[in-house]
Write a structure and sequence with these properties.
Rossmann fold, 6 helices, eight-stranded mixed beta sheet, alpha/beta, 8 strands
Length: 245
């Protein structure tokens, strides 16, 4: 990693000052943010948060964006009540913090959320998107969960699933060219392994000049040149969901 003292630069860029259009609900043992479109639909998307947790305004903004595109969107608390990472925390303690929050150990919670979406929301076609920690979780789910239709992994940390490439469902991978924690050689290797092992549709896309977190961070106000790539990333995400849900 480029900077061991800052192992995850998810806080690059601004947080949105955003309240959300949805509501918080209790789904068995999990709290979740849910937003539903005005017209009924049988399509839903699970949104998996980054290290800053399910209440981050930026993530809720993306959930609401999915809803404006016709999807039920749900962002569950996949830390299940454990504290999300705070920017003021000591980054030296990050690895210990992460050990108790494994992106590959969310299957029980995902099953609960899938049941809720089917029983309470009438969902029949369900996809998943995730950012950073959540992007790694998407990679995990695309390798093993038969009940999801497709996924979008946004700057998911590749090294957590370095040896697994036999995806079950169409998966779109979004990376930034200037991401400090996901070097381009890792992305190249991922593409090679997918080409050798993957039997379903996939796409790996690198966005020029972009750093970690660019799709759900409000950086266009700081660097106007980033705006087209932020918008492109969001549009690509929606188009992938539209294609497979």
């Amino acid at each position: 990693m480029a900077n061991e003292s800052r192992p995850c630069p998810c806080d690059i860029g601004d947080r949105f000052d955003y309240g959300g259009r949805g509501q918080e609900v209790q789904v068995e043992h999990i709290k979740a943010y849910v937003c539903k479109p005005p017209a009924s639909t049988d399509k839903a998307v699970i949104v998996i948060h980054d290290i800053f947790g399910w209440q981050l305004p930026n993530t809720r903004y993306i959930a609401d964006m999915l809803t404006t595109n016709g999807y039920v969107a749900i962002c569950p608390d996949f830390f299940v009540g454990q504290e999300a990472w705070k920017p003021s925390n000591d980054w030296a303690s990050f690895d210990d913090w992460l050990k108790t929050r494994e992106a590959g150990k969310i299957d029980k919670e995902v099953d609960v959320v899938l049941k809720y979406l089917k029983d309470q929301c009438g969902a029949k076609k369900i996809g998943v998107i995730g950012f950073c920690w959540g992007g790694a979780a998407v990679q995990h789910l695309m390798l093993k969960n038969p009940h999801l239709k497709c996924g979008v992994s946004l700057y998911g940390v590749i090294r957590r699933f370095a040896d697994k490439h036999s995806l079950l469902h169409p998966t779109f991978f979004i990376f930034g060219e200037k991401d400090d924690i996901i070097p381009l050689e890792q992305v190249t290797l991922l593409e090679q392994k997918l080409k050798q092992n993957c039997k379903v549709d996939y796409e790996v896309k690198i966005y020029p000049g972009q750093t970690h977190g660019f799709v759900h961070r409000k950086r266009e106000d700081i660097n106007p040149q980033d705006k087209p790539y932020i918008e492109e990333g969001r549009k690509d995400m929606i188009n992938w969901l539209n294609k497979y849900l």
